[in-house]
Design a protein that fits this description.
The structure holds two protein chains of two kinds. By secondary structure, chain A is an alpha/beta fold. Chain A contains 15 helices and 17 strands. In chain A, strand 1, helix 1 and strand 2 form a beta-alpha-beta unit. In chain A, helix 1 packs parallel to helix 3, helix 2 packs parallel to helix 9 and helix 13 runs antiparallel to helix 14. Helix content of chain B is 17%, strand content 17%. Chain B is built from four helices and seven strands. In chain B, strand 4 and strand 5 form a beta hairpin. Chain B is globular, with a radius of gyration of 14 Å. The N and C termini of chain B lie far apart (33 Å). The chains are: A alpha/beta, B alpha+beta. At the A-B interface, helix 3, strand 11, helix 6, helix 7 and strand 15 of A face helix 2 and strand 7 of B.
Chain lengths: 448, 133
Amino acid sequence: MNKGKKETGTAGAAGAAPARFDAIVVGGGPAGLATTFTLARAGVKVACLERGNWSGSKNMMGGVIYSHPTAAVFPEFWREAPLERLVTRRDMWFATTDSTIKASFESTDFGQEPYNSFTVYRARFDKWLAAQAAAAGAWMITETLAEDLLRDGRRVAGVRSGRPQGDLEADVVIIAEGVNPFLTEKAGLASCPPQAPNVALAVKEVLALPTEKIEDRFDLEPGAGAAIEIIGEITGGLPGTGFIYTNRDTISIGVGVLLNSLVDNVTEAYTILDKFKQQPQLRRLIQGASPREYSAHLIPEGGYRCMPQLYGDGVLVAGDAAGMVNPINSEGANLALLSGQMAAETVLACRREGCFDRHALALYQQKLEKSIVIKDLKKYENATPFLASHPQLFGLYPELMAALAREFLTVDSLSKANKEKLLLRLFHSQVPTRRLLKDLYDAWRSLT
Amino acid sequence: MSSKRDLATNIEPAGGRIKQAPAEGVLPNPAELGFPQPAPAVANKLALVKFNLDSRSHLSIKDAEVCRRRCHQKYCTHSCPAQVYHWEGEEKKISISYEGCLECGTCRSGGCPYDNIEMRYPRGGYGVQYRFG
């Protein structure tokens, strides 16, 4: 047991660290840090390996962290964590190359404790999470790549790190390595091959703009934020979405597109992003903003069907590495945090029994099954195949909605009766009734 | 050398080879070192990203013949969001500007439909270092 909280590791302290731990966590993102923090607080001697210079330096997402699941692991995190804006408005835009239909939800309720969501920079937010884990007594071993697993027969017995004499032994290893599941594959736990169509590629730019301009342009109270999801021609008609999130004095703007459709269409993600930024209604929001950073990341969208085996002898898998992303609601970090916490709870329960074989660690699966993690993944298990096979949702339908709205709102010499006929004819010419019914049926089958 | 590449920078390209191993340390922009540079759209974006440059590549082509004979589209030159891969028309091979790699994993996840790219993570502490993320 780790009684000495003063043992707190610092960046690059691996040389001084003992080579044996109760638990080793691979990866300092939301999943890994939820595990590390929860275990350290319970007095377990736990090390977290992070290949970046600090936790967060390799991490990227659009930008929204949900309050409820985060607070379940890090209570009242909003008092100290580096947050950008409190999200009070969620928009869904259907955009073509020149027009937009906007659906917007805004609530003062989102502005009350415990809040709903915040925009964050992962490079700073994850660093803060890691600091909480370190303060709780965990060894944060940064600049250290976990290259392989150590084995004792069938059992995973530790991690081979990239450092000299870098073998670290443990009773249990929690793999929270993120979307590229190198170790999960090595552990023989992966179920889908890493190749598409199981992933989306997201590219993003952070654009600097003065605080007042952001609040004026997005019509926000001071400190409040907007999160905008955008569907339509802006992804070049490929299955994907665009997003805009407001930060304190920057805007995060990006697109995420299913990788196999990008490859099939021989299209570049950054070309889509550059076109996206030129869309007139979007361009207005980011006018005059100066780019600060460009980033790219994969999103595991294979869903429930592509989840790896989540436990084995001496090993658990959590977060993106376990494919825990809900592509419909753009959730991932919340599922990562919850799975990380459940991994830690499983380890604590197994420590009481003194057994970390796969039968004991199966408790992790049971916990996940009872939680929103697997419930939501199961609900949307057909979502990604559905979206991939219905590109009209991202091209034709938004285009048509905009055309109908334009025609409806245009006042000209046409009588209203004829206008109605024209609208119906326009719709039917693009979407025959049979096609519409089939699409609705498919959507109902796949998403409910 | 492709026309896209010619537009890249006014820096003399080093032919895809590191003539002299650069000092290891934080370098804000690989463009300054005269490595082969991607097309401007991406080069401008990558110039904003901080890299902790390693002297060895973490990316490699498994079989150059596959690029030469089977892959007509040179998919990786489009799918990689950092345009790390370039088709060298004269030498008939893919060159790799690993210095600008964002470590997303596209090249191992279907970005190369022939699964012909060996991608590893850079050594601990090296590679991309996001300030915002």
